[in-house]
Amino acid sequence: MHVLLLEDDADIGNWVRDGLTRGGHVVDLFVDGREALIAATTSEYEVLILDRMTPGLDGMGVLRTLRATHVETPVLLLTALGDVDDRVEGLEAGADDYLAKPFAFSELEARVSALGRRASRGQSGDVTSLTARDIHLDLLKQQCVRRGERVDLNTKEFRLLETFMRSKGRILTRNMLLEKVWGLNFDPTTSVVETHVSRLRAKIEKPFGDVVIRTVRGAGYIFEP
Question: For the domain that residue 164 is a member of, what is the CATH number?
Fold first, then answer.
């Protein structure tokens, strides 16, 4: 999973990041709430781990802003505050789970995995189609239609477009696409993402004379909503 971690304590932050990384997750560590908020709204994450009290914009502020802008990524709050009222405040603000410090890493890992599974089930759910702009995907029949015209996509092209449409308006990095579409970890030697994005654009953009997937230099790609 791709996990965002906001933690200003260097020892705890590095400990959690290293442990989750050993467990096979990709972890982006932030010590500044504002930077974490930007990342959470411009990139795709399966789980957000937010320290409740950080200098400047704290985890609660990040959480409230995300929920106010309809970002529903599961959030686990970390805090030294263990009182019931504090836990209730966090949950009412939109947190999905709450873990008081000090905690065992095994418990944190279990809670993160549970939130990731819950998010995955919520994404698939009963959704059988996706529509964005003038593109319609039938997920059951694996068919793509744009402006009433059938667009023939192979399996990977379809999965790539589905991934973009599920994350419309957010930047997807090359590594994210490798993991989500091909199930691969980082491989600096492969150009499979660039090749498939180019082929997908040739099919869904060129015949219709506009741009749907934009390249963000140094960052990745974004499906324009």
Answer: 1.10.10.10
Q: How many CB atoms lie within 10 A of CB 100?
A: 15
**Beta strands per DSSP E along the chain:** 2-6, 26-30, 47-51, 75-79, 97-100, 129-132, 135-138, 143-146, 149-151, 171-172, 213-216, 220-223
Domain of 194, in residue numbers = 155-223
**In a 3-state reduction of DSSP, which class is residue 197?**
helix
Sheet holding 143-146, edge to edge: 129-132, 135-138, 143-146, 149-151
pLDDT tens-digit map of 41-62: 888 899 999 998 888 899 999 9
Contacts of 156 (CB under 8 A, 6+ apart): 181, 182, 196
The total number of structural domains that make up the chain: 2
pTM of the model: 0.56
